[in-house]
Amino acid sequence: IIWVKAQIKTVKNFYPSKWLLSMQPSDAFFQVDVFDETGKALYRDLKADTLEAAQVKLPLEANRVYTVIIHCARSNFIAFRLTDWAYREGQLQTKEFDTGLFFGALGILLIYNLFIFISVREISFVYYSFYLGGMVTVLGIIGGIFPLNQILTTIGLFTTVGFLLFTHSLLELKYRFPRIGSSFYIFSSVGALLAVLAAFPAYLPFI
Question: By the number of CB atoms within 10 A of the CB, which of 105, 156, 180, 199 ranks highest?
Fold first, then answer.
């Protein structure tokens, strides 16, 4: 356990705003104190708000010297980065927009295929909608949108089953290649069984 002291110097033409001080790895820090030239504390007692980096929001002004004192648990690797908070907020908003656009497009495609099924009564569109729904859910869980981590394996397996059934129906394997079509049914049945078992924690280690 050591104390690390660093200084942030801003120049005359420095843009005064809120800046984000990020430090990695986040689990190496116990306490962070930031002081200005007069000794006034700008920040005390760090609380990490992300898994990737410990972050502190600082109101910095031009032509000043700020002192950062860090009480850290290890010193083999410590990285610091200072980022404009407004720029970071813009990045987050852009990411949220892109994410919403992506999931919105998949949702529209899912609904569109369901409407096609209602019109033509072709079962392959149901399988494809089932596959899209599972894919949206899996990507949402991985991206932290849906808090369903405990059943991620189950949803992933059901998504795979939907893809197999869709492929089987679209290529008409039952009529063109009966043996291959039968194997698709077997794989789909096994996948569905594993998906149900994966919902129970006792069976999850064996899957």
Answer: 156
